Protein 1
Amino acid sequence: NAGVTQTPKFRILKIGQSMTLQCTQDMNHNYMYWYRQDPGMGLKLIYYSVGAGITDKGEVPNGYNVSRSTTEDFPLRLELAAPSQTSVYFCASREQVNNQPQHFGDGTRLSIL
Amino acid sequence: GNSVTQMEGPVTLSEEAFLTINCTYTATGYPSLFWYVQYPGEGLQLLLKATKADDKGSNKGFEATYRKETTSFHLEKGSVQVSDSAVYFCALSDWGFTGGGNKLTFGTGTQLKVEL
C-alpha cells in the first residue's frame, strides 16, 4: 500500500542551490498536485497535472518548475533556492472521476539558509 | 474566487468533550466539500466528504453536513479522544470550475488538542 511517496523527507539547502523533490504514486491516478504548507496559511497549490505531458500553474508557481513524463512521477524542481521557499511540500494525486478525494504523501520539509 | 474560512485554533478540549470546528465557504460553482486531518509529521488524510447540499459525511465518529443556505460544513464529534489530536482542514473542490484539475481550496487549518 505505497500510495503517494515523496523523497526526501527533510533537506537543508543553501541560498541559490537547486534541487528536485520527487513524487511517485502507484494508483494509476491521472491528476497530480504539488502544494506548499506554511504555518497558519493552509496549503497553497504550486503546480498540477492532469496527465502525462500536461502541467499547469497553480496559485504560487514562481520559483518552481515541474514535469510529467510518466503517469507515476511528478517531480518538483527548485532552480535557485530562496529563503521564502522554506516550507513543507506535499504531493497529492487523485482519480480523474469527479468527487474523488486527493491522496497525499507524507511531505518534504525543506529549509533554505 | 473560491475561499474557505475556518475557526482559528488551537482548540483544547478534555477527553469525551463535544467538538465543533466551524467552516464556511465561498464558491462560484457547485462545490464538493471535504474535511482532511493531519497528524504530526504526516500528510493529509481524507476524513469525510459531502458532494451536494444536505449530504452528511461521516467517519470515525466525526460528522459534517453540507448546508448550502448557510454555506457551511461544520465538523462535529460527540466525544473526542486523545488520539483525535491533530490539525483539521476544511476544503472545497468546485466541479463547475473550468480551469481543469478540479483543484482543492483549503482553509488555514484548526489544531485540536485533546487532554486527559
Protein 2
Amino acid sequence: KAGVTQTPRYLIKTRGQQVTLSCSPISGHRSVSWYQQTPGQGLQFLFEYFSETQRNKGNFPGRFSGRQFSNSRSEMNVSTLELGDSALYLCASSLGDTYSGNTIYFGEGSWLTVV
Amino acid sequence: DAKTTQPPSMDCAEGRAANLPCNHSTISGNEYVYWYRQIHSQGPQYIIHGLKNNETNEMASLIITEDRKSSTLILPHATLRDTAVYYCIVRVAGGATNKLIFGTGTLLAVQP
C-alpha cells in the first residue's frame, strides 16, 4: 500500500511569507506527526495529531501550527517565515493507538528554503 | 534530550556484518527500542524495534541486553546502500503519544 505522502517536495519562500505543507498518511493510520530537521538542531518533534486533535506539541513558537482533517490527512503551516525556518519538514504516520509498540513511518519530506 | 547514546560514526567493509551499538541506561520497563536509518536527503526509514527479546526481520537483527540498558543493531551483510545515519530511539511511553526523540545517530560508512 502507499506510504506517507508529502507535498510539495521542494519549495522556496521569502522571509515574512507563510507556507502550508501537506501530508497524507498511510491508509488506516490515524496519527500524524510532524518533525523539523536542520543541520544544527537535527530532527525535532513539532506536533502530533490524532483524530483531528493535537495531542502532543514540541517546543516551537506559535508561528508553527497544524491541523488534521477527518480523513486523517494533515497540514502544517508556518507563518511569518524566518531564514532559520529553512529545513526538511517530515511527516510521520502510525495507527495511533496507545500501544507504544506500533510502528511510525516517515514520508520523504518537504524541503523548505527561506530566502 | 535524547535518551540514547551512540558513537558518531563507524566504518564497515562491504559484505561484512555491521554492528551498531546503542546505550539506553535509563530505559523504563515499558519502553521500546526503535531503530531508524536516514539516507542522505530522504525521510527516516524504519528498521526494527523490540522490547526485551531479540528481534530479527528481513533488514536486520536487534540484540537487547538482559538488563535492557544497551542494544546492538546488526546488519548481517552490509552493502554500499546501507551507508546512512542510524538512529537508536527509546520510544516515549505512557499516554497516547507517538512522539520520537532523535539523537545525533551513528553515521555508518560502508566501504567497498
Protein 3
Amino acid sequence: DVKVTQSSRYLVKRTGEKVFLECVQDMDHENMFWYRQDPGLGLRLIYFSYDVKMKEKGDIPEGYSVSREKKERFSLILESASTNQTSMYLCASSINRGRGYTFGSGTRLTVV
Amino acid sequence: KQEVTQIPAALSVPEGENLVLNCSFTDSAIYNLQWFRQDPGKGLTSLLLIQSSQREQTSGRLNASLDKSSGRSTLYIAASQPGDSATYLCAVAPAGAGSYQLTFGKGTKLSVIP
C-alpha cells in the first residue's frame, strides 16, 4: 500500500513564524497535493505538483508557498503564519487520476 | 465549475441498519469518483474508487454505485456497526485532459448508535 506521511500530527506556532509542513510518499507518485480542511468549508486545494520542481496554484494559494526538490517530498510553507491559517492540513499523492488519491494522516496547525 | 453535494450533512442510525449515503455532482464529465472515510482529527482513508465506465464497486459491507448521466453516486453500508461512525466524503476527478484535481463534497457525518 502507498504510504503518505506527514511529519507532524499537531503543531502550535506563533503569529509571524515561518512554518514548514512536510509530506513524504513512498510509491514514486508524480502528483502531490496540499489541502486545508475547515468546518463548513470542506477541503480546499492550496497547491499541487505534477513533477519535481513543478508547482501549480490551487484555489487558495495566498499566504502559502511550496517546494518539491525531490519526487517523494512535497513541502508546504507558511512564510509568515497568521491566525487565519489555523486549520487541518492534508497532503495527498496520486500516480494518475485513474488510481485515485492517497491521503496522509493530517497536520492540525494552530497559530497563536 | 464542478460542484459536489452530499445530503444529509449528518445521519444517525441504530446498529444493524442498512443505510445509503448520497453524493451528487453537477458536471457528468468525470473520470472517476472516490469515496473516503474520515475519523475525527484524522486524514482521509480511501474506501472505493469507481471509474466512469463502471456502475458499481464493492468492498466487504460497502457497495458504491455510479450513475454518471444523472450525476449521482450512492454508498451503501450493510449491517452498520458503531465502528462505521465517521464522516464520509465523495470526490470526483474531472475527465478533461491534464487536470488531476479532485472536487470534494462536504461530507456526511454518520453516527451508528449501539
